From TrEMBL:
Pathway noted in the entry: Cell wall biogenesis; peptidoglycan biosynthesis
Job of this protein: Cell wall formation.
Protein family per UniProt: Belongs to the D-alanine--D-alanine ligase family.
Name of the gene encoding the protein in the UniProt record: ddl
Name of the protein described by the UniProt record: D-alanine--D-alanine ligase
Segments forming domain ATP-grasp: 114-308
E.C. number: 6.3.2.4
Length: 312
C-alpha cells in the first residue's frame, strides 16, 4: 500500500514563488510506486487550495491532511519555515518532514541563530540588530551587509559600501521585517554544507558546495542562473573537517531534523557561519540535492529518506 504524502507549497511571504518551485519538484520527485502525493498550496493571501487549485480554506485543508500519512511542508520563509507549519502538524498529531517548531523559529531568526552559534563556539560575522526605532541613529563607518532578520532567498539584502546607501538599504530590509541585521563584510569563500538526519537516525553531512558569484549572492544571482555552484568544493582536509564539524554542531545545537543547509564564509581563520536554512530550496537543481547527488544519493532517494524519517 502506498504512503499518502501531502506536499505543501506557496505561502504568505515574499518567497512564495520559490516555494512553489520547490513543492512542484518534490511532487514530481516522489516515487509514484511508493507514494500517493497530494499537493496543497497556500496562496499569497493565505487561502489554502487543493490539487486543482480550488479554494478549500484551512478547514478543508485539515480534512485533506487528516487523510494523509505524512506531511511534507516546502514553504520557505515566514509562516512556513519558521515553525508555523510544524506547529500545525504537531497540534493535529500528523507526522511531518523537517525540523520542529523550536529549530524552525530559531533558525529563521538570523539574530537568534548567531547567539546559538556563538554559544557553541561557531564564529559569526560581527554585527548588530537594528529596528525601525534605532535605524535613524545608525551611522555608516565601514562596508556592511544589511539584511532582514527573518526573510530568505537573499531578498532585502544589500551590500553597503558608501554612507549614502545605508538608509535605502535599511528601508529595503525593514520593508520585509521589523528587525534588521547590519553585519561587517566577511572576506571569504561562500561554502554551503547540507546536513541530513537519515531515516535510521544517523546524521550525515554531504560534500560541501562552493558558490562563485560576481558581487553579492542576491536573489537574481541565486535564481537567475548567474551563480556558479561547484560541488564538491575544492577544500583541503583541514577546512573540509572544520566546515563539516561546524555544520553538524549548528544542526545539533538548534535541534534540527530532516535536511538543513548551513551557509558559511570560509576565511583564513576558518568557517564563519552566515545562516541556517531548515527548509532549503528543494528543486532537483537546488544546492542541497546537488550536494547529496555528489555523495551518491539521488534526488528521489533523498526525498524518500526525508519522508521515512518524518516526525512520528
Amino acid at each position: 500500500m502506498r504512503t499518502r504524502v501531502a506536499v505543501i507549497g506557496g505561502g504568505q511571504n515574499c518567497e512564495h514563488d520559490v516555494s512553489l518551485a520547490s513543492a512542484a519538484s518534490v511532487v514530481a520527485g516522489l516515487d509514484p510506486a511508493t507514494y500517493d502525493v497530494v499537493p496543497l498550496t497556500i496562496g499569497r493571501d493565505g487561502t489554502w487550495r487543493d490539487r486543482g487549485m480550488r479554494p478549500i480554506g484551512l478547514s478543508g485543508a485539515a480534512e485533506v491532511l487528516r487523510g494523509c500519512d505524512v506531511v511534507f511542508p516546502v514553504v520557505h520563509g515566514p509562516r512556513g519555515e519558521d515553525g508555523a507549519l510544524a506547529a500545525l502538524c504537531e497540534l493535529a498529531g500528523l507526522p511531518y518532514v523537517g525540523s520542529g517548531i523550536r529549530p524552525g523559529a530559531l533558525a529563521m531568526d538570523k539574530w537568534a541563530t548567531k547567539l546559538v552559534a556563538q554559544a557553541v563556539g561557531i564564529a559569526t560575522a560581527p554585527g548588530g540588530l537594528v529596528t525601525a526605532a534605532t535605524a535613524a541613529h545608525l551611522r555608516w563607518s565601514r562596508p556592511v551587509v544589511v539584511k532582514p532578520v527573518a526573510a530568505g532567498s537573499s531578498l532585502g539584502v544589500s551590500l553597503v559600501t558608501a554612507p549614502e546607501a545605508l538608509r535605502p538599504a535599511l528601508d529595503a530590509a525593514l520593508a520585509l521585517d521589523d528587525r534588521v541585521l547590519v553585519e561587517d563584510v566577511v572576506a571569504g569563500r561562500e561554502i554551503d554544507v547540507a546536513v541530513l538526519r537519515r531515516a535510521d537516525g544517523r546524521v550525515v553531512a554531504a560534500p560541501a558546495l562552493e558558490i562563485v558569484a560576481q558581487g553579492l549572492f542576491d536573489y537574481d544571482a541565486k535564481y537567475g542562473g548567474h551563480a556558479d555552484f561547484r560541488v564538491p568544493a575544492v577544500l583541503d582536509d583541514v577546512d573540509a573537517k572544520a566546515l563539516e564539524d561546524a555544520a553538524l554542531s549548528a544542526y545539533d545545537a538548534l535541534g534540527c531534523a530532516g535536511v538543513v543547509r548551513v551557509d558559511f564564509f570560509l576565511t583564513e581563520a576558518g568557517p564563519v557561519l552566515n545562516e541556517v536554512n531548515t527548509t532549503p530550496g528543494m528543486t532537483q537543481h537546488s544546492q542541497v540535492p546537488r550536494m547529496f547527488a555528489a555523495a551518491g544519493l539521488s534526488y528521489a532517494d533523498l526525498l524518500d529518506e526525508l519522508v521515512r524519517g518524518a516526525h512520528r
